[in-house]
Structures are given as structure tokens and as C-alpha cells.
Design brief:
Layout: H1 15-26, H2 30-42, H3 45-72, H4 79-87, H5 89-119, H6 130-133, E1 138-140, E2 144-146, H7 152-170, H8 173-200, H9 223-238, H10 254-283, H11 286-291, H12 295-304, H13 308-340, H14 359-375, H15 378-406, H16 421-446, H17 454-463, H18 465-480
Antiparallel strand pairs: 1-2
Helix pairs in contact: 1-8, 1-10, 1-13, 2-9, 3-9, 3-10, 3-15, 3-16, 4-5, 4-15, 5-7, 5-13, 5-14, 5-15, 7-8, 7-13, 7-14, 8-10, 8-13, 9-16, 12-13, 13-14, 15-16, 15-17
Length: 481
């Protein structure tokens, strides 16, 4: 296919937008709810803050390591292309498959669903009678019964928003980038406003920073497992930092702006997360935090009174809307890159002749996300594949050593600070996190808290891509060559 019929994507995103995409992809709904359950898991405010700092630093180490590779290989598709250069087509395809089948589409579904849920604070969304909701049940082995008609109003709005954001990104990467910049800036300013008011204009207590939860009130009597579980929650809130690499082909001076964007964006997120947790703790004692179903709402009610609930609802909606937009914009570039290398459906690699966007990839992503929304399985499946994401994070960091050996003389605009120690620290931490996640899942399964071993089932989901790898390699890549 000639470039005239399938033109290249256009480089239109600058450094500010790159930073905004990093911040927007990371700060979603997690920071508004995760601190509560994390407090119940570790039982100490000092330990809670330490976990946010450690998780942030480890994330920063991953971003710094990833930055060197992003500066070296600045092609649309990002991490998928990195894996292809590091480990070959098979590992790269499994990564891209996981991104499409659940990791990113499930994230889009989950994040946008939270947006739709919070609109109910302002607007009532219709719901079918319970007997109708329960009339159509789909049983999925190991997962349970799925009710596609449940919360149909929320699901319908979720799908509408996904389609709207897909349409926005269909009309141009600059349009989508502008939306990301606006909502990323807005969510950071809203959080900083809340922190400022909480710390200066409320009667919080400094003594809350040394409070400890009684063992009987903790969610896990084993403090080690509690720390692992809380760390997992923090990493979930920090996830999405590498999404910007998918857009490498559409960023101006990507060899320079992607490393800068990853560093600056990750540092901003760490600071914002630490500040808002300090505000939560200052306003709420740890026993109240641990029992809270939505810690941000409880803290905001203390800070802003009766309007606190509306403030948090609006903040969550702004945050999730921006995150969903950024995830939609970035993720479609992975399937686009896969297709252009003969490892996905041929039509998905076509770009729009006028708007220069991966139009077909965007709409395929939207349709599959809508199916996940209707099924109601997105949260379950995403939880199972968070563990898989960390396997790929580990492989991505280890790949820096492979590329230094494979491409020793290649121009590297950025070399990771503290090499080889920073990448090694990240790799070791990722390895132990993966191992302890499996261990924690096994303990939970033995104790009867889990019906299945989530991490192992996540690997089973990943393995569904293996037959597709051989199908695409035989019937699509061969024709491309």
C-alpha cells in the first residue's frame, strides 16, 4: 500500500502535551478510593505514606529506564516495538494481544464506567427493574454469573462516552492532545486546591500522622501480606505511565520529548499523590480512613461541608474523563503498529487519509471496549492482568541491557541515570512483586478468600493469544512480506 493511500501519522504533540498525557494516563479514579483500603491493609499512616513514596520511586525508576529505550526507538507503537527489538515477534505480539484483549480496553471500560457512576450524583440514570436485570444471566467458568442488563443506564452512558472520545481522537491527534492537556491540568489544579484548603483552612490534626490501627481492625493480620496488597493498590494508581510511548510517531522530537515527558510527568504524579494523601491523613484519623468507602468524599465533606460530595464527584468525573481520553488515544497506536507489521488484521493498520489518525484501530478498540462494558467483566479481568502487566514491565526494563548489547553504537539521546543500578533495582523489585503476588493469591485461594488464583488465571488469559500469533504470522505477515 502506498503512502498516498495510507499516509503516515503526523507529529504534532509537543513537550507540554507529552507531560499532560503521562499525568492524564496515570491520575484516574484510584487516588480517590485506594488510600482507604490501603490504610486498612497496613494499619499505619506512616507506613501508608512510605508505600506511596516507594511505589512512586519504583515507578520513576521504570520510567527512567523506559526513557532510554523510548529515545532510542521512537516509533508509533512504543512498548510493542520495544519488545519486538528486544525479544522478537512472539513476546511483542503477546504484549500487544494482552493490551488489546483486556489490559487497555479493560482499563478504558473501568475508568469510563467510574465516570458514568459519578454522573448519578447530578443526574439520575435509568435502570431496569430487578426482575428484568436478572432475567438474562451468562455464566462464565471461574468468573461467575454475568448480568449484561444490570445497571444498563450506567453502562449505556459509559459506551456513549467511549464512542465520543473515540470520535474526538478520530478527528486528529492534536484535538485529542488538547483534550488531554486541558483535563490533566484541571485535575491537578483541583487536587492542589483541595490539598491547600484541607491543610490551611480546616481543623485537622498533626497527631493523625502517627496514628496506628488496632490489629483487630486491619484487613489482614499478616502485615507482610498487607504491605504487598497495599503496594499493589499503589501500583494500580501509578499505572499507565508508559502509555505515552505508544504515540512516539506523533510527538515532535520524540527522542528528546518522550524521556523528558516521562520524567516530568512521573515526578508530578508522585508529588500530587503524596500531597493528597497528606491531606487525607491530616483531615481523617486512620480508623476513619480504613472504614471509608470513598475516602475523598469523606475528607471533602470535612473540608468543604455539604458541597464536599459534589466537589469530589466533579473531581472524579474530570479526572476519569481525561484519563479515558488519554488511554483511548494512546492504546489504539499499538494495534495500528501490530497491523503494519503483519501481526494483526490488515485493515487496522490503515490511517485516515485526511485526519492522519489510526481510525480503524480506534473504532475496533471502541467496539471491543463496549462489549467488555456490557459483559460487566472488565474489573475482574483487569485485576487478573495487573500481574501480567508487571511481567512486561520487568521484561521492558531487562531489555535495556539487551539493546545495549545488540545496538552498542546506536545514538541514544538519553542514557538512563544511574545505569546499571536504576534498571537493576526496578527489575529486582518487579520480580519480587510478581512472585509475592502469586504467593498472596495462593494464600487467598487456600483460605477461601478467592475463588480462583487471579495471577495464574491472568497467565491463562494471556495464553489465548498464542493461537492468534500463529494465525497472523501465517496468513497476514506472509502476505505483507
Amino acid at each position: 500500500m502506498t503512502e498516498k493511500h495510507n499516509p503516515k501519522l503526523k507529529s504534532e504533540l509537543g513537550l507540554f502535551t507529552t507531560v499532560a498525557i503521562v499525568v492524564g494516563a496515570v491520575i484516574g479514579s484510584g487516588i480517590f478510593k485506594k488510600p482507604a483500603i490501603m490504610a486498612s491493609q497496613v494499619g499505619s499512616t506512616k507506613l501508608l505514606l512510605a508505600i506511596w513514596v516507594v511505589a512512586g520511586l519504583i515507578t520513576l525508576f521504570g520510567a527512567l529506564t523506559n526513557s532510554e529505550v523510548a529515545g532510542l526507538i521512537s516509533e508509533t507503537g512504543g512498548q510493542y516495538i520495544f519488545f519486538q527489538k528486544m525479544y522478537g515477534e512472539f513476546v511483542a505480539f503477546l504484549y500487544g494481544w494482552a493490551i488489546f484483549i483486556v489490559i487497555q480496553t479493560g482499563s478504558i471500560a473501568s475508568i469510563t464506567y467510574v465516570f458514568a457512576e459519578y454522573t448519578q450524583y447530578f443526574v439520575h440514570l435509568p435502570r431496569l427493574p430487578v426482575e428484568i436485570e436478572n432475567s438474562f444471566i451468562i455464566h462464565i467458568p471461574y468468573i461467575g454469573n454475568i448480568l449484561p442488563l444490570e445497571n444498563l443506564g450506567v453502562k449505556a452512558l459509559t459506551i456513549i462516552i467511549v464512542m465520543l472520545l473515540t470520535l474526538i481522537n478520530y478527528y486528529g491527534v492534536r484535538f485529542g492532545g488538547t483534550i488531554s492537556s486541558f483535563f490533566s491540568s484541571s485535575k491537578v489544579l483541583i487536587i492542589l486546591f483541595f490539598v491547600l484548603v484541607a491543610l490551611i483552612f480546616t481543623n485537622g490534626s498533626v497527631s493523625n500522622f502517627s496514628s496506628v490501627l488496632p490489629v483487630s481492625e486491619m484487613g489482614n493480620s499478616n502485615i507482610f501480606l498487607g504491605i504487598v496488597a497495599a503496594m499493589s493498590g499503589a501500583f494500580w494508581a501509578y499505572d499507565g505511565w508508559n502509555n505515552v510511548t505508544y504515540l512516539a510517531g506523533e510527538i515532535k522530537e520524540p527522542q528528546v520529548n518522550i524521556p523528558k515527558g516521562l520524567f516530568l510527568g512521573t515526578v508530578i504524579v508522585i508529588i500530587v499523590y503524596l500531597l493528597i494523601n497528606i491531606a487525607y491523613i491530616y483531615v481523617l484519623p486512620i480508623n476513619e480512613m480504613a472504614k471509608s468507602t470513598l475516602v475523598a468524599a469523606d475528607a471533602a465533606t470535612r473540608v468543604l461541608g455539604s458541597i464536599g460530595g459534589g466537589f469530589v464527584a466533579a473531581a472524579v468525573m474530570i479526572s476519569t474523563f481525561g484519563t479515558s481520553n488519554g488511554t483511548i488515544m494512546a492504546s489504539a497506536r499499538v494495534y495500528y503498529a501490530m497491523s503494519n507489521r503483519g501481526m494483526f488484521f490488515k485493515s487496522i493498520g490503515k490511517s485516515h487519509i485526511k485526519y492522519l489518525t489510526p481510525a480503524n484501530a480506534l473504532w475496533l478498540q471502541a467496539v471491543w471496549t463496549a462489549i467488555l462494558v456490557l459483559s460487566g467483566t472488565f474489573d475482574i479481568l483487569t485485576d487478573m492482568l495487573i500481574f501480567v502487566s508487571w511481567i512486561f514491565y520487568l521484561l521492558g526494563a531487562a531489555g535495556i541491557f539487551i539493546l545495549r548489547k545488540k545496538m552498542p553504537n546506536a545514538h541514544r539521546p538519553y542514557r538512563v541515570f544511574g545505569y546499571p543500578y536504576i534498571p537493576i533495582i526496578f527489575i529486582i523489585f518487579a520480580f519480587f512483586f510478581v512472585v509475592f503476588t502469586i504467593y498472596s493469591d495462593l494464600i487467598g485461594y487456600i483460605e477461601g478468600r478467592y475463588r480462583i488464583i487471579n495471577s495464574l488465571f491472568g497467565l491463562m488469559l494471556l495464553s489465548t493469544g498464542i493461537p492468534f500469533y500463529f494465525i497472523f504470522k501465517k496468513y497476514f505477515k506472509t502476505k505483507l512480506e
